[in-house]
Amino acid sequence: MKSKTDEEKIKAVGAQFQVHGRFLRAFPIGKGHINDTYAADYDYGGRTLRFVHQTINHLVFTNPIGVMENIDRVTRHKHGLLAATEDPDAGRKSLTVIPRRDGQLYYQDGDGVYWRTYIYIDRATTFDTIESLDQAREVARAYGTFQHRLVDLPGGRLHETIPDFHHARKRFDNLMRVVEKDPANRAASVMDDIEFVSQREHVVDILLDLINRGELPERITHNDTKLNNVMIDDTTGTAICVVDLDTVMPGSVLYDFGDMVRTATSPALEDERDLSLVTMQLPMFDALVDGYWSAARGFLTPIERDHLAFSGKLLALMIGIRFLTDHIEGDVYFKTHRPAHNLDRARNQFKLVFSMEEQEEEMHRVVEERCVDGQ
Ligand code: GN1
Ligand code: MG
């Protein structure tokens, strides 16, 4: 906690929600680039219960109510399916939204900041870098299962909470626009990086062309499938729960798979500056494909399957483009913790793109071998 006043603030936020114990303490958790997340303990007659209070960055999510409506529908649906399985651990296998005292899903404080509350999932941990093949398999299985459970979500289309979130062409064009404007006077110093992106312009249209031709189905996807958005059970090492549901909305499963590849195959952190450490490790990719196929084989179309290997490169390139754009704009979107942080992240992602280009054939071979019907 930065200060006592911060803790007082979290206490005041908690009091708005259907958390009825006596407030004990709060502390920051999570490493997201967008929202602030806190855990808070409450005394419920001698037992301590922990909840999560989290902001919704409304500069990024301009429709926070839509975000919460999506999350509410998705988590209710998941809990419904889990209840039917009589799984003793069902309560930990989906986020649970705790509404405000008046039943609303969010609270807007005096500073205009939006907050929501979840039950804290205990005895589980998230990882920022991948530690084992089993972990990679588990993470991919978890995201595949997440998508599978949402295939038949009842009700209308979910809100598109960030329109064109993974629209690679728009991300590319936006970078070029920002380079042209150069508001922070940084473009001249990153010409090689801009050139790296320009040389790969054709990559940004490949999935969009398939979508436009109606060949890639729209599904309900997570859209932020970073390794550290899956909680791994401390005892069993299995994936217990997918978190960070802010961007759950209509999308392509390939965006989800690609983001897993980008975050779970490199042994280095996303902002590692020693680029010799940043590589796509083929055995990790193999484990991801294995885990994902075990959960998604029942619904994946051949075109989706055939683009699994490509999706990693696309997502690393697209997020790299977004980091580079933010650097050139003067760091207005992602939280940064040091000078040129976004540039470090961009270069890290471009190194990963390069590593995948070098191993493209092997990656395709892995998919060919793993994703076979009847196995
Ligand atoms: C952001 O906030 P966080 O860390 O979950 C971003 C993702 C990026 C990611 C890069 C809404 O996610 O798209 O892939 O940073 N989320 C949003 O680490 O822009
Ligand atoms: Mg996120």
What would you call the shape? globular
CATH architecture of the largest domain: Alpha-Beta Complex
Q: Largest sheet, if any?
A: 6 strands, antiparallel
Name the CATH superfamily assignment of the largest domain: Aminoglycoside phosphotransferase (APH), C-terminal lobe
Q: What's the average pLDDT?
A: 96
Mind telling me the CATH class of the largest domain? Alpha Beta
Strand % is 5-15%
Instruction: Output the radius of gyration.
Output: 21 Å
Q: What structural category arises from helix and sheet content? A: alpha+beta
Number of helices: 12
> How many DSSP E strands?
11
Show unreliable segments.
none
SSE series: HEEEHEEEEHHHHEEEEHHHHHH
CATH names the topology of the largest domain as Aminoglycoside 3'-phosphotransferase, Chain: A, domain 2
Helix content range: 40-55%
* Terminal residue distance: 50 Å
Number of domains: 2
List the helices and strands and how they pair.
Layout: H1 4-14, E1 22-29, E2 37-44, E3 47-56, H2 64-85, E4 97-98, E5 107-108, E6 114-119, E7 124-125, H3 133-149, H4 168-181, H5 191-198, H6 206-212, E8 219-221, E9 230-233, E10 239-242, E11 249-251, H7 253-264, H8 282-296, H9 302-306, H10 308-329, H11 341-358, H12 360-370
Antiparallel strand pairs: 1-2, 2-3, 3-6, 4-6, 5-6, 7-9, 8-11, 9-10
Helix pairs in contact: 3-7, 3-8, 4-10, 7-8, 7-10, 8-12, 10-11
What does this structure look like?
Helix 7 (253-264) packs across helix 10 and helix 10 packs antiparallel against helix 11. The protein is built from twelve helices and eleven strands. 42% of the residues are buried. The protein has two domains: 4-122, Phosphorylase Kinase, domain 1; 133-370, Aminoglycoside phosphotransferase (APH), C-terminal lobe (Aminoglycoside 3'-phosphotransferase, Chain: A, domain 2). The chain is of the alpha+beta class and 375 residues long. 43% of the residues lie in helices and 14% in strands. Strands 1, 2, 3, 4, 5 and 6 form a six-stranded antiparallel beta sheet that branches. Strands 7-9-10 form a three-stranded antiparallel beta sheet, covered by helices on one side. The protein has a two-stranded antiparallel ribbon with strand order 8-11. The protein has helices spanning 4-14, 64-85, 133-149, 168-181, 191-198, 206-212, 253-264, 282-296, 302-306, 308-329, 341-358, 360-370; strands at residues 22-29, 37-44, 47-56, 97-98, 107-108, 114-119, 124-125, 219-221, 230-233, 239-242, 249-251. It is globular, with a radius of gyration of 21 Å. The chain binds 2-acetamido-2-deoxy-1-O-phosphono-alpha-D-glucopyranose and magnesium ion (MG).
